[in-house]
Specification:
about 300 residues; alpha+beta; NADH Oxidase; 2 domains; two-stranded parallel ribbon; 10 strands
Length: about 300
């Protein structure tokens, strides 16, 4: 086994020990196929009010502009599929937001992995990314052989579906690179047929400005009236295109205690949510991603659903 293989093996073994589902590696280089796709998507205003998507266009496509001298993109998946779901008589929250904000959980694991690389392999420089910088997570994960990008534009994996977070370490270390896997969506259109707002405008293209996750989280103004009765009881995020995906039959519960929800989140009824106070909001969502919308955002969404 040569040094490249040995180092790659070391990193993948440590990633598993840290609790990641899987780890893949690709060469840090310009994402040629993604460039025209991203440009077209932005030109068609499918990012809605997510202005940040327009920024750092070149950095999004070229990791060497983010991390000087970078040679490898290490992509990692972390499962968040819960063992228990919300009370059926409830406004719904996307499963990824049940527990502690994933940014904190994953950042710690990535720092540990980078520290391990530096201790075991030597003077390696790199940066950790958890969807908070201009990095095309799904494109890198697909390039690294961790899955394919499905018709709902999520990364899908035959063994575990799609209920996982994607993160990266971009490092100035040469490694052995993985190859992409084939697309296994076939003729299935379950996600396209089930999307309550018809946001999947064609296979593999999602109009972000119509997506329920965008409307309930990213959109800061009032939700447009054209979506009356179409939000399917979602008050934060949406999982419909993942819930109906046949590959998610294989989802297994995560084993990360920090992703376990506050018990009230699972037991609350619609009435409980309608009467939620600032104190209760802070208690249930103490370190949750739901804090992004603040109580006022959650109330806006609930009032829209009640109409």
């Amino acid at each position: 086994m040569n040094a490249l293989q040995k180092n790659t093996e070391l990193i993948k073994t440590e990633a598993k020990r840290l609790g990641f589902l899987s780890c893949g590696v690709s060469k840090a280089e310009f994402l040629e196929e993604e460039a025209p796709r991203l440009e077209k998507w932005l030109n068609q205003n499918m990012h809605g009010e997510m202005q940040y998507m327009e920024n750092h266009f070149d950095k999004r496509l070229d990791p060497t502009k983010l991390v000087e001298g970078s040679k490898s993109v290490i992509s990692l998946l972390l499962n968040y599929f819960p063992s228990k779901e919300q009370n059926p008589d409830s406004y719904k929250i996307s499963k990824y937001a049940y527990g502690m904000d994933y940014h904190f959980v994953i950042k710690d694991k990535l720092k540990s992995l980078l520290h391990f690389i530096q201790e075991e392999i030597g003077d390696v420089h790199g940066r950790a990314f958890v969807d908070s910088a201009p990095v095309l997570d799904k494109a890198w994960a697909a390039k690294s052989g961790l899955g394919w990008i499905g018709k709902n534009s999520n990364l899908l994996t035959q063994q575990v579906g799609s209920f996982y977070f994607i993160a990266e370490l971009i490092v100035d270390l040469e490694l052995e690179y993985d190859t992409p896997v084939t697309d296994h969506c076939g003729t299935c259109t379950a996600c396209i047929d089930a999307c309550p707002t018809e946001a999947i405008v064609q296979p593999y293209v999602v109009d972000g400005s119509k997506c329920i996750s965008y409307l309930t989280i990213e959109l800061k103004n009032e939700i447009p009236s054209e979506f009356d009765g179409k939000l399917d009881e979602w008050m934060f995020g949406c999982d419909v295109c993942q819930d109906v995906c046949p590959w998610n039959r294989f989802s297994k519960s995560h084993s990360e205690p920090l992703f376990n929800p506050h018990p009230d989140l699972l037991s609350f009824t619609k009435k409980d949510w309608e009467e939620i106070t600032e104190d209760v909001f802070k208690k249930i969502f103490k370190k949750s991603a739901v804090k992004r919308t603040k109580l006022s955002g959650l109330e806006r969404n609930i009032n829209f659903l009640k109409k």
